[in-house]
Amino acid sequence: MSVSAETDTLNKSANLLPPGPDLNVKITESYARQVARDAYFWAWPMENIYNRRLAFKQAPKVGLMNGVLPFAPLNSLAMLHDYIKPEQRWVACPNQDVVYGAAIAALDETPVIVQVPDFGDRFWVYQVVDLRTDSFAQLGKMYGTKPGFYLLVGPNWKGYVPKGITKTFRSKTGTAFIVPRVFQDDSPQDKKAIQSVINTIDVYALDKFDGKMKSQDWSKLPSLNSPTKDGGSGETKWVFPDSFFDELPIVLKDAPPLRGEESRYAQILAVIEAAKKDPALKKAIIEEAHKADKELIDPLLQFKNWGIPLANNWTTANNCAAFGTDYFTRTAIAKSNILVNASAETKYFYQDLDSNSTKLNGSNQYTVTFAKGKAPQVKGFWSLTLYDEHHFFSPNAIKRYSVGTKNKDLKYNTDGSLTLYVQNSEPLGDKKANWLPCPKGIFCLYFRCYWPEEKTIKNEWTPPAVVKT
User: Fold this and answer.
1) pLDDT at residue 436 above 80?
2) What sequence ranges are listed for the domain DUF1214 (predicted)?
3) Nearest one of 153, 184, 188, 185 to 167, comparing CA atoms
4) What does the alpha-carbon distance between residue 54 and residue 389 come to, in Å, rounded to a whole number?
5) Same domain, yes or no, for 44 and 185?
6) Residue 463 CB neighbours (<10 A)
7) Does 230 reside within a domain?
8) Which of 16, 85, 216, 410 falls 20 to 30 Å from 431 in CA-CA distance?
9) Is residue 270 assigned to a domain?
């Protein structure tokens, strides 16, 4: 038999196999628990994003949730007009380097238009990810994106692309998250200058497209109530063990299996179907979800527990927003700092420890020194941000949560090096310009390189040590 004939025979045999588990087979509780625990881990990021979609669906109009966070009905955008306020708790690890916007597109309902104005020399990037938090559209200064109208469509859309569309991007899922980021420095002049630029950023349904740039005054947005239970010190809860498996079939329908995932989908859907008929099984998989949440998910909030180890206890990830079937990294990032940019857009470095491998604590004082010629390797800009133990801004007297390119008054040492001072009390003299205030307790540091050089992308450049002084 020839190789091609043998291959055809094997393919025909494979097609005769059942597409998944036999739903009539009785299964054991221990097997259901095993499948449930695994499913909870790999599907956690997808339910996280899907439940944010359900929250945005409740927005009565475009506005700011609790007066601080972009909030808009599906297939529309809300933009901030300044840095994000420190009290928001919807998204962990925010930054005060850029002006944010947010839109959630229901691409299973309609394609959407993404409007890109002329940003001139200003740094900008639009994050566009699907339900898996994988990027599927490249829009930003690093891509040489031209002003114009860009179309996002769902996996099954077969409509007509109207004249005037610069480029079309297709998502693998019915849900997409769009987050524009536009650089702004700390000066009042730049905060004023950015307004005319950001006012022509927009996202809207295809049926509203007329080929003309729409403009909004984002500084006039109304304050809206939150549809979620907010107010805690940590991130708003988006994944709920008690209802996880009730919602999962809907989520998996929104995100068809990637190549090789078909059996995984069939397996968990079969267990869910069995649990519908057996209250004991249903109780068991919910118990397993609670255990997985505590034992598998919660430890991923700490950066020291995951990532690629680098010099001086920094960690990073090389496949941000391109996770595919790397379920561990995807879930780790979803828990600790969801909605990260692709590596060509932003490189992230994470730090929980000082150079002696001791947990960072505000009862100590630290320095971070860039030697002369060892500045961050970026084409865009860089920043070092400080977060509390829950990965949010920690209140401080000077209302400073990050230092970097946006700070025009940083003081360099006589030898050309740059030292940043991370401590609770105000440093003496002109060191205050380089001061990053920290709380009295546990905290972490987070380094961003926007539009990183190749050396930074490949981890050939990494941040310096955090030294206890």
Assistant:
1) yes
2) 346-454
3) 153
4) 28
5) no
6) 23
7) no
8) 85
9) yes
Residue 5 tokens read as 């004939």
Query: What average pLDDT does this structure show over 385-404?
Result: 95
Question: How far, in Å, CA of 334 to CA of 42, rounded?
Answer: 11
The pLDDT of residue 5: 59
Please state the three-class secondary structure of 282-335 as a single string.
HHHHHHHHHHHHHHHHHHHHCHHHCCEECHHHCEECCCCCCCCCCHHHHHHHHH
The secondary structure element, H or E, covering residue 266 is: helix 262-277
Name every residue whose Cβ is closer than 8 Å to that of residue 26 and which is 6 or more positions away in sequence: 274
Question: pLDDT by residue (tens digit) across 56-67?
Answer: 999 999 999 999
Segment (H or E) for 468: strand 466-468
On whether residue 172 sits in a domain, the answer given is yes
Alpha-carbon distance 125 to 179, whole Å? 8
Parallel, antiparallel or unpaired: strands 165-170 and 148-153: parallel
Q: Which residue has the tokens 């000077």?
A: 398
Which pLDDT tens digit goes with each residue over 409-423? Answer: 999 999 999 999 999
* β-pairing verdict for 175-183 and 223-224: unpaired
Q: How many CA atoms lie within 13 A of 148 on its CB side?
A: 13
CATH number, domain with residue 100: 2.60.40.1610
Collapsing DSSP to helix, strand or coil, 98 comes out as strand
Cα–Cα distance for residue pair 323/340, rounded to 1 Å: 11
Kindly state the tokens that stand for 387: 């977060």
What type of residue sits at position 86? P
290 plus 331 within the same structural domain: no
Residues 261 and 384 in one domain: no
Supply the range of the domain harboring residue 171: 59-224
First to last CA, the chain: 74
Q: In the listed set 197, 224, 251, which residue is the last one of a domain according to the structure? A: 224
166 in the same domain as 133: yes
* Per-residue pLDDT at 230: 65
Q: Name the token pair of 171.
A: 């998502």
Note the pLDDT tens digit of each residue in 342-377. 999 999 999 999 999 999 999 999 999 999 999 999
Two tokens at 245?
Answer: 């498996």
* Domain presence at residue 15: no
CA 254 to CA 109: how far, in whole Å?
11
Residue 377 is part of a domain; what is its CATH number? 2.60.120.600
Biggest distance spanned by C-alpha atoms of the chain: 85
Query: In this structure, are 367 and 404 located in the same domain?
Result: yes
Please indicate, yes or no, whether residues 421 and 396 belong to a single structural domain of this protein. yes
- Grouping H, G, I as helix, E, B as strand and the rest as coil, residue 327 is helix
Amino acid at residue number 415: D
Q: Which residue, among 204, 216, 208, has the nearest Cα to 112 in the 3D structure?
A: 204
Q: How many CB atoms lie within 10 A of CB 373?
A: 7
Q: Where among 301, 324, 345 does a domain terminate? A: 301
Structural contact between residues 218 and 63, judged by C-beta atoms closer than 8 angstroms: no
Q: How do beta strands 435-437 and 418-423 pair?
A: parallel
Query: What pLDDT is recorded for position 229?
Result: 76
Cβ pair 338, 320 in contact under 8 A: no
